[in-house]
Design goal:
Largest sheet: 8 strands, antiparallel
CATH architecture of the largest domain: Ribbon
Number of domains: 3
Strand content: 25-35%
CATH topology of the largest domain: Umud Fragment, subunit A
Order of helices and strands: HHHHEEHEEEEEHHEEEEEEEEEHEEHEEE
CATH superfamily of the largest domain: Umud Fragment, subunit A
Number of helices: 9
Length: about 425
Amino acid sequence: MFGFFASQNEKARRIAADWLELADKVHHYRRDVLSVAERTELQIAQGNVRTLLKDKADAAMLKLGVDALEGVLRRSGGHHYPKSTLVENVEFFLVAAIVILGLRAFYVQPFKIPTNSMWPSYNGMTGLIYPAKADEPGLAGKALNFIAQGASPRRVDSPASGEILLPVGVADGRGVVSYGQVAGRSWLVFPDKLREYGVFVGDRVVTFKVPLDFDMDWVFRDTFFPGETRPFGEIASEKIARGEMVEGTVNTAHGPERIRLLRTGKTVRAGERVLSFDILTGDQLFVDRVSYHFVRPKSGDGFVFRTGNIPDLKGDQYYIKRLIGVPGDRIEVREPKIIRNGKAITDVAAIRRNGDREGNYAGYFNGRPDYRYPKAMLFAGQEITVPAGGYLTMGDNSGNSLDGRYWGFVPAADIVGRPLMIYYPFTKRWGPAP
């Protein structure tokens, strides 16, 4: 640690010891291919350096001994010596990669929360709204937000003057405002699917793209209806019922299509900001893959699992939900609480707070019939029993969660582990996982 302050003799002894370690490596790995003369020469050179170290020779004598040993290694070391810097770096990164992959496969795995189905316990991607252009961060602020929170800015300017209108009713997926899926890239490199939104100003439209899992409804609500705390879908339904709509036309692959446009009541001039927000990265966790090999999962755990063996979920992905029921448990949802074996769950802080609708927790909701999910369950008044070898999960934000109420039970073989800590972003949420 304090090598900078070591004497020349101490430094020389340390260097000599390193050379002896390399010589031992060459001898052990190559003794079956070295000639008798080469082995003898190598052993003599090693013995000389060991004797110098034992006799506490000065730096000059040690250098002579090391130089002689280096000459022998150059002749007999093969691919172990001399070794180029490139080879050393490649070996270092290969070893590091093997260690990291081993840790990931068997002990600790990084995991990124993509959606807000577990909000407010865990954040998926969220939007940070800037009400006015003057509120937007400068260059230094953008850099700081990127480093600390993984912030990705979106700035949308008006192509014309008029009222801002939001297309509704033909969404390609979840959410109130219509959008389409388009091909794109994440981190400017990896192929990915994105959402493309079109916002109307008068009879003109301006488009922008966001990640497929990003929930734009919060951004639209907080931008155009500041102060509202109701879900954006409820606000939109109310305005639609009052007739606060206009008709518009959008060009699709099938030709022009008539759409409904929700009035926001906000007008802008050409060139002014329509939307200004940052997309903040979702919580990134370390997941413990070990402990479930020794202890059984228990109700209330944060629960990471794979979806490859769940028929109604296409593809093999990693999900995180709250473990609600283990084999044999009888579960019922009596909004806003979860009833397990005839009693409300109160011994798990997140479930208790959700059931009491404390803070940002909205409570638990019953399942709803959905033709896409024939296994949907936990309707009002329905009690189910978790089968052997299965686990029941729900999102803490159950009003916006595709979970076990719709696609059933997680097979025991697909359990990955439980969250340990939030390691990024660097906010007050950093630390042990709730």
